[in-house]
Amino acid sequence: MTSLLLEVNNLHGRWPPSSYQTAFKMARSINVVTLLFWIVLAVAHPHSVPCEKVDKYSTQWFLDHALADFKKPFSDDALFYTRGMTSQAIKYAKSCNLITLWNVWPCELYNYHNTPDNSMRCIHNEESLRTIFYENMSRAFAMKANGSAIVMHSLKDYDNPPLNGIWGRIELPTIKKVAKVDLLAKIKETGDGYLLFWWLHYEAVTAWLKQQRPLSIHEELKGLKRRDLQAPTYCIRPEDYRFFDNVDW
Questions:
Q1: SS3 117
Q2: Which helix (H) or strand (E) holds 53?
Q3: How far is residue 48's CA from residue 194's CA, in Å, rounded to a whole number?
Q4: 150 and 79 in contact (C-beta within 8 Å)?
Q5: pLDDT band of 29, cuts 50, 70, 90
Q6: CA gyration radius for the chain?
Q7: Residue 151, SS3?
Q8: Alpha-carbon gap, residue 23 to 6, rounded angstroms
Q9: Which regions of the chain does DSSP assign to beta strands (E)?
Q10: Using CA atoms, how far apart are residues 88 and 63, in angstroms rounded to an integer?
Q11: What is the pLDDT of residue 235?
Q12: What are phi and psi of 163, to 5 degrees?
């Protein structure tokens, strides 16, 4: 339109009359409004991406794609937990510099928001897919455990921990059969009640326990935690914890 107006100006030997100026200003205004419209539309309706397939995320995939700081086996610092304990377990892990399921893999894998631009939306928002996804992730996490490990239970589950969730069906059997874990202890959601409940070499550990002073076991094991890494970072936020308690831990 600008070139057209300039051509008219050359023909008449003067600047375009007011009618042309008005048309020119209107065209510019329309272009700005149109641009703003498309910006708002893009924000309100993000570009849709295909959903990831849960078949991609096998146990081996998780083992192969752990973050750089967690490529090696854990060393006396793996923390597991059972149902309803996401918030309490993360809080305890942060205070003791322990590793949980939420530290080991890229943040985008934990994105559960049901938006078109999130490729993980289908897995996280379909219960059966979500269960498969976290079963495989949890198995990989358990396979990386080494030395001693801890599992946290709620106060009501502490005496009789649930074994029908991911801990009982996936993680505990993996620890006993595959992982190089020597000692397993449980704690309450309050962080106390530390109690050894399984060890790989019963006779050797029993003899060791007899030589220990009372209440020293937890202190000894905490002293074995690796010190070569800073406190792990967390992808999920406190407002996300309730959603992840939907997983049958």
A1: coil
A2: none
A3: 48
A4: yes
A5: low
A6: 29
A7: strand
A8: 13
A9: 78-81, 146-153, 180-188, 195-199
A10: 26
A11: 75
A12: -120, 10
**Does residue 184 contact residue 196 with C-beta atoms inside 8 Å?**
yes
pLDDT 10s digits, 92-131: 999 999 999 999 999 999 999 999 999 999 999 999 999 9
How deeply is 128 buried, as exposed, middle or buried, from its count of CB atoms within 10 A (0-12, 13-18, 19+)?
A: exposed
Phi then psi for residue 9, to 5 deg, are -60, -40
Q: CB within 8 A of 101, min separation 6: which ones?
A: 134, 137, 138, 141
Q: Using CA atoms, how far apart are residues 88 and 226, in angstroms rounded to an integer? A: 22
Sheet order of strands, 195-199 included: 78-81, 146-153, 180-188, 195-199
Reading the block at residue 225, the tokens are 């935690």
List the chain domain ranges: 2-44, 54-244
pLDDT at 162: 93
Q: Which H or E element spans position 241?
A: helix 241-244
Output the pLDDT for position 247: 87
Residue with tokens 């997983």: 247
DSSP 247: S
- pTM: predicted TM-score of the whole model, two decimal places: 0.72
- Residue reference for tokens 């996401």: 86
pLDDT over 60 (residue 56): yes
